[in-house]
Design brief:
This protein has 373 residues and is an alpha/beta fold. It has helices at residues 8-24, 40-49, 59-68, 85-91, 100-112, 134-145, 169-186, 201-205, 220-224, 339-346, and strands at 3-6, 28-32, 53-56, 73-76, 94-97, 117-122, 150-156, 192-194, 196-197, 215-218, 226-227, 232-233, 242-255, 281-287, 299-301, 307-311, 316-319, 332-337, 352-355, 358-361, 369-372. The strands form four sheets. Strands 8-7-6-5-4-3-2-10-9 form a nine-stranded parallel β-sheet. Helix 4 (85-91) crosses helix 5 and helix 6 crosses helix 7. Pfam families: Ala_racemase_N.
């Protein structure tokens, strides 16, 4: 069975580096854990790094976090579905909102559950994903603060995820000004501006974060060490926190071009082959992972000279080249993974999940240790 490995020591290194950067700039931050798809083994590693605030966009994942660490503040980071109002109040300490009707339901549930449910109002800043239109923001806020058991703790925005619109100093300054206008008109204080995500981190390096932008939500840069602003890598961070490992289940010399009448393949493509390869052969290997678990375009073999040829639902086909490592059937091959590769593999029940072999403390507030293998 193929498996994905979380290298906890590398993740810890990335966390400490980011934590130092945010502390130096007086910014609070929360980890976005949706990449882990609620996997308890991996969440325990994450909670050892920080048990303060964890964000997710799947309610079942927040439920798991609360089971592992009841005191951790959980944040639901997309506008809730109305049908989930009861569970949102139960398992999310904070939720991101854009719809008054949904907030009314959250208010009713908070009253029934005898809780104060905290909310961040998301503002549309040009990305055209979730967000309240600026022209409606003041009246929207006035209606929200009148709701019982609802506390507005922040304004937020999301950028880059849908249309690639980047954050900049001007947009963040506008968001800060919206908060100031609301406070001036209402007489109420809004503690946080959650204006930052992984894509906003490079603005810290350039000193382009306005004072008052005091909360970030970070996933991708923590897990991959990426500069999301420029689609590059950040020096000093690990980029291989995750690896995929698959076992060779067949290895044979085969022609480089198939024979017979060609139609579309599994994903509706018609493969095209170079005539230069006609009559040639190569050493091919099949490993036990496929399109159900991974998009082969999002991974790369870590051993030199190995080319990914293609994939079917359950198998990945490789050209081993000169096979300089003398691989055999039963050996395993490691692959690097990008964000989408990890997300897809984490969501697959057919890919096992492992943590690098080390002693990792777990049990918030105690001295227990687990050996995670």
């Amino acid at each position: 069975m193929s498996y994905i490995t979380l290298h906890a020591t590398k993740l810890r290194h990335n966390f400490k580096l980011l934590d130092q950067i945010f502390a130096e700039n007086k910014i609070e931050w929360a980890i976005v854990a949706k990449l882990l798809c609620g996997n308890e083994k991996f969440l325990k590693v994450l909670l050892n790094l920080s048990d303060k605030e964890i964000c997710d966009s799947r309610l079942s994942n927040l439920k798991t976090i609360k089971k592992l660490s009841p005191e951790t503040q959980t944040i639901y980071i997309k506008p809730p579905a109305k049908r989930l109002a009861t569970s949102i109040v139960k398992f999310a300490d904070v939720s991101f909102n854009t719809e008054l009707g949904t907030l009314e339901l959250l208010s009713n549930e908070a009253v029934l559950q005898n809780k104060i449910h905290r909310v961040v109002l998301m503002v549309e800043m040009g990305e055209l994903r979730e967000g309240i239109m600026v022209r409606n923001l003041m009246s929207f806020y006035d209606e929200v603060i009148a709701l019982p058991n609802i506390e507005v703790v922040g304004l937020g925005t999301n950028l880059k995820c849908l249309n690639g619109i980047l954050p900049d100093e001007r947009k963040l300054s506008k968001l800060k000004r919206f908060k100031e206008i609301i406070e001036e008109n209402s007489g109420e204080k809004i503690p946080y501006i959650s204006g930052g995500s992984s894509v906003t981190i490079p603005l810290i390096f350039k000193n382009e974060i306005p004072l008052g932008i005091n909360h970030f939500r970070v996933g991708e840069t923590l897990f991959f060490g990426t500069n999301v602003y420029t689609d590059s890598l950040i020096a000093g961070m690990y980029h291989d926190v995750f690896t995929l490992t698959a076992e060779i289940i067949e290895m044979q010399e085969k022609p480089t071009i198939p024979s017979g009448i060609a139609s579309t393949n599994l994903v509706g493509e018609v493969p095209v082959f170079s005539k230069e390869k006609k009559g040639k052969s190569s050493l091919r290997a099949i490993v036990d992972v496929g399109l159900l678990d991974i998009d082969h375009k999002d991974i790369a073999a870590l051993l030199p000279g190995i080319e990914i040829i293609g994939a079917s639902s359950d198998m990945l086909i490789l050209d081993l080249g000169e096979n300089v490592e003398n691989l055999e059937v039963g050996d395993t091959i490691d692959f690097s993974m990008n964000y989408m590769a990890v997300l897809r593999a984490m969501n697959s029940d057919y890919v096992d999940k492992k943590v690098e072999n080390e002693m990792v403390p777990f049990g918030i507030g105690n001295d227990e240790y687990l050996c995670l293998n």
